[in-house]
């Protein structure tokens, strides 16, 4: 009983103010009277009931009070529609953009792969490994519950209806048969691949993705057991992946899963005995950690094993001993991100989201501050007749939450619209990247929580300030109370400056990104881009033997030269002007005199004879590749034991400078992982489609590439009087050589640029939208605040005008205040944006690529602050002009 | 019109019914209501304070009871106590509820008689 009474008293005191006003004292009294009686009759159980009753009623009473706040808040909002509309629009923009960023980026980084069991146990290695290594890793039963090998982005010519139908080109994964068991996955229909059933020599079975099954096979239940032709070879569909699963370890979508046990005729990637060649580091790894094994311990153990294996491998490249040979990354999400990187990327998105949300909130907070200033009298009256301060704050916060919830709904609709736009963007072929980012209930919950948090966030400070009123003076003086001039560090001024600063940061960051992307898109060509076409061809996947394919490519140049419609042409592994993403290539200067030779990693491009001529690129020094460079067959030479001559190599300026400084690089020798190279030419730097200049080493196409075409086939680049002419020429040559060859990825250069622009369009829209959002919001905020300041200072301005102040002086008086806020905000925002951009450049993602281009662009560094400041001043000017129209007589008479 | 308004309250919630029944005779304060209900139901129904005042609040809002200005003799009065009484509407609602319950009891009686006769 001694404990019960203080608890009772505390709880009774916690009831809502209105409730206490009516029943507080009496409830205390009753409690005091009842408590002894209850204790006597029911003992401890009764006391517990007494307290429980209070605990249960407490939230009910609060909800009851708030239920009345909500209609009141709605009525207040309806009464000032201007404020409500602006508030909903800015909140909607803020929440919509944040949701868009969240659903596009955050979810992709954090969502685990669909259909996968215990995704947190999955890891992958940063570098690919060879199949023999993987088999050794598999033996580590104490470390791993399973190890699978994966080759991503493998292209297949797929013919669904027998041999004669025109094949499609699809992307798939070449996986070891235990792939799905490592993922811990069950088939949606049929069966998935298994190590027991899919043995070498067994009939080829493949699994198709759920997406492919629904999209191309029309969700046909009889698809299981159907025989299709892959690269001209028969294979049977044995199963469908779980819903939404289309591959791991890659952002691109895989349609097919083909076991590594099929013949090399079906999957040329398996040719050359890659499954037994310890130097063919062609496979990505997917590990499932054994229970209780940490990523660190697995990494350390793998490192040790790899070192031993490297020592036994005569072809292994010499490596620095200190460097880690195996780095593991978590692989349970769609895109494996290095462990350290993940937090940085997330940090970037958090910063971005926080800035956007903060600006929207600050905007509403400033508007609300302006509003409550004019509601002072109403608030004072309510305080005067006995409303509690807490009650008023609660009322205003409820108003804020309501506004924010409506804004949240609008924002969700906007995010949906943005998503729909992005989802329908056609991406260039060759980049089968299209992440499924449908807005789901996660996002809806995110929006709801965000909206409520924003509502509380922006309304709590204004509410606190507004209710700090001295009732008596507020009642006497009404809205025009403060004549005491301009408070330099008032809450409203600080909020306003912070908002301008935030907008400035957003505008600049968005500007950096947009400029970066646009620069990337404005690729300069040294010829009329309407005259170029490129297309891919892959005889081996059309059923050619390696020898026959080699012979085909030997004859092809001759035939193309004879075609009158084709003025120039070249072969390459990839079309030109691709964003980075080719192979990485480690080169070391081969100089016996140097104690520590320069070495660096650069982009690798494999191109044929005449490549630079067809692009009309000047050769700065030396020569470009010729037909004779293509005839080198290093593999054959190595196999026969003959000395392998150095392979010719062309560098771009950036790579040449990095490796040789000011020396003439021509004739210099370099060592790569597996062989020696000789520099024969230097070409100028060019921005790629990502907007950045990379160090690039160009390697010649060799006979080996012809007999074992890389995953994307061989690209023919041709120019004629027009792209159509050139295409016709190449087509007729191909048909005359073999009418059954598949020509795919046919594209004119203009089409390619157009597609690249659309692909970037999604990014541009998002970031452009963010920039505009910042601008619009700060303009609205400034106009609102200045307008309110003018309204409050009506009397003061009236007196000034009565004393003879000219209109221009009044204008200057009002504008000066706004200008100070804008100047402070702009400077802070500018410095913040530069700092943020520098911090972000630490990443090696496209963000930093794009940022590094835009970051020192004078258009932006001068233009953006001017634009923002100009717009902000304009926003101040409109209400300031109203100040000059104040009639002194009326203003003075009014109070 | 008034009839539908009355009907809209029926059947009354148990706590409401008990509170209103306690106020049928004379004006009462909260603790008094609590005690009376306890006695009337021989300790079976106890209105705990928070529930009691929550119900009183809603009864006032529904215009079924109101605060009374009449106070008892000064020597019995406690300034903190408030006294409540039924409003005319409250009286009508209580009567209607009592009628409804009586009809129910009547019906039960008839059934019981039939059952004993048959048995």
List the helices and strands and how they pair.
The complex is a heterodimer of chains A (895) and B (119).
Chain A: H1 4-13, H2 17-79, H3 81-110, E1 122-125, H4 131-138, E2 144-159, E3 168-175, H5 179-183, E4 189-190, E5 205-208, H6 210-215, E6 227-230, E7 233-240, E8 256-259, E9 284-289, H7 295-312, E10 328-330, H8 339-374, H9 376-384, H10 389-423, H11 441-466, H12 471-477, H13 491-521, E11 532-537, H14 546-562, E12 568-572, E13 583-589, E14 599-607, H15 611-614, E15 621-622, H16 627-630, H17 634-640, E16 647-652, H18 653-660, E17 669-671, E18 676-683, E19 696-700, H19 703-707, E20 714-719, H20 723-737, E21 743-748, H21 749-792, H22 794-802, H23 807-840, H24 846-854, H25 858-884, H26 888-894
Parallel strand pairs in A: 3-8, 5-7, 14-19, 16-18
Antiparallel strand pairs in A: 1-9, 1-10, 2-3, 2-6, 2-9, 4-7, 5-8, 6-7, 11-20, 11-21, 12-20, 13-14, 13-17, 15-18, 16-19, 17-18
Helix pairs in contact in A: 1-2, 2-10, 3-8, 3-10, 3-11, 3-21, 8-11, 8-13, 8-21, 9-12, 10-11, 13-21, 13-23, 13-24, 13-25, 14-20, 21-23, 21-25, 22-26, 23-25
Chain B: H1 2-7, H2 14-25, E1 28-29, H3 30-40, H4 49-61, E2 65-68, E3 83-86, H5 88-118
Antiparallel strand pairs in B: 1-3, 2-3
In short, what is this structure?
Chain A is α+β, with helices and mostly antiparallel strands and 895 residues long. Helix content of chain A is 53%, strand content 14%. Chain A has 5 domains: 4-73, no CATH class; 80-111 and 339-481, no CATH class; 119-333, no CATH class; 482-525 and 745-895, no CATH class; 539-741, no CATH class.
Structural commentary:
The complex is a heterodimer of chains A (895) and B (119). Chain A starts with a helix and ends with a helix. The longest helix of chain A has 63 residues, at 17-79. Chain A folds into five domains: 4-73, no CATH class; 80-111 and 339-481, no CATH class; 119-333, no CATH class; 482-525 and 745-895, no CATH class; 539-741, no CATH class. Chain A has 895 residues and is an alpha+beta fold. In chain A, strand 17 (669-671) and strand 18 form a beta hairpin. Chain A is built from 26 helices and 21 strands. With 119 residues, chain B is mainly α. Chain B is 61% helix and 8% strand. Chain B has helices spanning 2-7, 14-25, 30-40, 49-61, 88-118, and strands at 28-29, 65-68, 83-86. Chain B is globular. Chain B starts with a helix and ends with a helix. The model of chain B has no long low-confidence stretch (mean pLDDT 86). At the A-B interface, helix 2 of A face helix 3 and helix 4 of B.
